[in-house]
Amino acid sequence: MTEPDAVPAASGSKEESAIRRPLRPRTPHLIRSDAEALEIAHGLAARFAAGAAERDRVRRLPWDEVEEYTASGLGGITVPKEYGGADVSCVTLAKVFEILCAADPALGQIPQNQFGVLALLRDVGSPQQKARIYGDILAGYRIGNAGPERGQKAVNHSSTRLARGADGLRLTGRRFYSTGAIFAHWIPTRAVDDDGRAVQVWAAYDAPGVRVIDDWSSFGQRTTASGSVEFTDVPIDEALVFPVWSYGDRPGVSGPISQLIQAAIDSGIAAAAIADAVTFVRDHARPWMDSGLQSACEDPTILHEIGDLHADLHAAQALLYEAAAVIDEVAKAPVGEAESARASAAVAEAKILTTEVALKAAEKLFDVAGSAATRAAHNLDRHWRNARVHTLHDPVRWKYHLLGNYQLNGIFPARHQWN
After folding, report:
1. Which of 21, 98, 345, 385 is the most buried (most CB within 10 A)?
2. CA angle 95, 101, 102 (to 5 degrees)
């Protein structure tokens, strides 16, 4: 890859005018253990939380915070030890995302695709590909994503094409839901090759023909910048094309790991909403007139709701960490179909509870905190907006279907990044 200076921006549109220049990669700190990863995550979270509400309010993209995250070394914690990384457990990975997303779930979501792609690399990459990509990660490069295309067709549909010409491979297409692409040095995407087969293609973000567009306008997760990426006749390195069409029958854990991260993000959103509910009741809420009490903290109905929320959160966290432990156990040996299915089912259970507690906590916050909590100055509605948007990444109703089919009929889940 060439030394990156800037995301290419054309014609000075409003969307592109806010795109800053990602810094040249600088070698980050090398994390060496699970304990160190968690310690660093807690330190970053304390700093990131301070500006989270304001970043959401004005939609300021977290450029400086992403650079601080990269410098911390957290981006490389799943690199295998034989390639120089810490190779932390999935339990630690889930906790890192949960910690960061409790501070700022939009900022915490930005690196999710990096870890999903690295999980796929572990399952299917050649030794040469692993050495190259793991080396880039430990050198400070970031991986983004050019996600599904817009429209009413299934998310795995692709009109993006990888074509071979006289001058090599070229990529053309337009993608959306591209979380992290603005901040990335590598932008992987799905495409269809000349034989009509699905492939994962890695484009250098500074390659000619790559255009990252900041047109993300969702009411939640506002600063993930999950907008569009255009590829126009982009030159592609043949060594960075992964034949995903051939992986459908190959069991692995990259799908469960991707889903585990999604569940951890939702758990972090729930934890933040509950923490803000508790703080607001203590510092601002008034007792209801009929209670005869002097403090909202003594209100038995509020005590019930706070206790209920904490119980639900801890139940969701227990399943989240248990699912992560299942993936860790499964990954220790060659992964067969039954083992891959077990990991998917475990994560589906966790995803159900983290989805439900995130939505419930963000709603109940206002029930216990009262009308004062709705003032724009507090920006507490960001918890509900973030929960509602992020939990739509994959519909939880299909997790119930997956589990029912698995438990009742013995049907293994389909293998892809949403399972």
Report:
1. 98
2. 90
- Helix-, strand-, coil-residue percentages of the chain, each rounded to 5: 55, 10, 35
pLDDT of 223 above 50: yes
Cα distance between residue 308 and residue 49, in whole Å: 25
Residue pLDDT, tens place only, 344-400: 999 999 999 999 999 999 999 999 999 999 999 999 999 999 999 999 988 899 999
Closest Cα partner for 391 from 353, 336, 337?
Answer: 353
Euclidean distance between CA atoms 335 and 333, whole angstroms: 6
pLDDT at 3 over 50: no
Closest CA to 103 of 135, 68, 149, 146: 68
What does DSSP assign to residue 23? Answer: P
Give the separation between CA 212 and CA 230, rounded to whole angstroms.
6
CB count within 10 Å of CB 135 equals 13
Inter-residue contact 98 to 45 (CB < 8 Å)? no
- The pair phi, psi for residue 186, each rounded to 5°, is -120, 140
Paired strand residues for 211: 230
Element (H, E) at 186: strand 186-192
- C-alpha span between 8 and 207 (Å, rounded): 8
H/E stretch holding 363 reads helix 337-369
**pLDDT above 70 (res 79):** yes
Q: For residue 131, what are the CA distances in angstroms to 51, 81, 125, 224, 250?
A: 37, 12, 9, 29, 22
The segment with the largest mean pLDDT, out of 8-12, 144-148, 190-194, is 190-194
Question: How far is the C-alpha of 415 from the C-alpha of 254, rounded, in Å?
Answer: 9
Taking Cα atoms as reference points, which of 273, 290, 249 lies closest to residue 369? Answer: 273
What is the token pair recorded at 238?
Answer: 């043949």
Going 413 to 173 to 393 to 256, the CA torsion angle's sign is positive
β partners of residue 190: 200
